[in-house]
Design a protein that fits this description.
This protein is an all-alpha fold. It has one domain: Farnesyl Diphosphate Synthase, CATH 1.10.600. The protein is built from 13 helices and no strands. The longest helix has 27 residues. The radius of gyration is 19 Å and the shape is globular. The N and C termini lie far apart (about 45 Å).
Length: about 290
């Protein structure tokens, strides 16, 4: 973690930045890597289930807007804590963008997310908006509770349903797919929190990972991500393919290699496993629906 304090004191912002600087700061504040990963996962799943070009664009666009709103609201909610712990890598904490600008961006993204979600049908749209609401609940409250893992599991677990409910006949996804997504989301939560546990505890954030500590959270993240891969490989009917066995072996190897790492290594390892999962889903094609 950066040892230096942010340059702007709480409640103030740095000198007025130019429009290009504001755009760059907003991009950094939206948590671009996980936002892009979740959006890509949605697009691939939509393509695999036969949503078509328009369906893929609508579902991926809705998820992208939802992720933007969640990322911006997360940094806005964490602004005071990020300043107290010295996070110049956070645009709000460093004064690179005004709090009102980030708040407005989050609200606008959320407002645009509603009609685009409903473009996939009222049931699919309602499911996705429930997932977004769970993520906002994490940002505003649940991250400080023992249920901090629940919004991640719920939001990720509902994502396949958002995609398949947009198909003709509004089919629900198979149970194994929802379980794999929920386990992956919960595992990502434990892995993502690892670098910030000490700062979180110092500022009163006592979610489940913080209470388990770094070692316990790393172990929980590994078990959940491995469980996600197992559900994806062993859940579908029929024999396990060579790629499936390879995915399980790859997951175990990646978790072993990154589980003892520092900083963002465990989270990046989780993203690598997710990319392998996406490849398997794409190979299965319409069989996921």
């Amino acid at each position: 973690m950066p040892a230096t304090r942010a340059t702007a004191p709480p409640g103030e912002t740095a000198a007025q930045p130019g429009s290009g600087t504001v755009a760059t700061a907003l991009l950094a504040a939206c948590h671009p890597l996980p936002a892009a990963a979740v959006t890509l996962f949605t697009a691939v799943l939509a393509a695999a289930t036969g949503r078509g070009t328009a369906g893929c664009a609508a579902s991926a666009g809705a998820v992208a807007l939802g992720q933007l709103s969640v990322g911006w609201s997360n940094d806005r909610a964490d602004m005071r804590r990020d300043r107290l712990t010295g996070r110049p890598d956070k645009p709000l904490a460093a004064g690179a963008v005004a709090p009102g600008t980030v708040s407005a961006a989050a609200v606008v993204a959320l407002a645009l997310c509603v009609p685009l979600s409903l473009a996939s049908g009222w049931l699919a749209g309602a499911v996705h908006l429930c997932a977004v609401a769970a993520a906002w609940a994490y940002n505003l409250w649940l991250k400080r509770t023992l249920a901090s893992w629940l919004p991640y599991a719920l939001a990720f677990g509902l994502l396949p349903a958002f995609v398949t409910l947009g198909l003709p006949g509004q089919p629900w996804p198979p149970l194994w797919l929802g379980a794999a997504a929920a386990l992956l989301g919960a595992g990502a939560h434990f892995a993502n929190v690892l670098p910030d546990i000490a700062d979180d505890l110092a500022t009163g954030v006592t979610g489940l990972p913080q209470r388990l500590g770094a070692r316990g959270s790393a172990a929980m993240a590994a078990l959940l991500v491995l469980g996600s891969a197992a559900a994806l490989v062993l859940g579908p009917p029929g024999p396990v393919t060579p790629y499936g066995w390879g995915l399980l072996a790859l997951t175990a190897a990646v978790l072993l290699a990154t589980g003892r790492g520092r900083g963002r290594a465990p989270f990046l390892g989780t993203l690598a496993v997710a990319a392998a999962d996406v490849t398997l889903l794409l190979a299965r094609g319409a069989g996921t629906a």
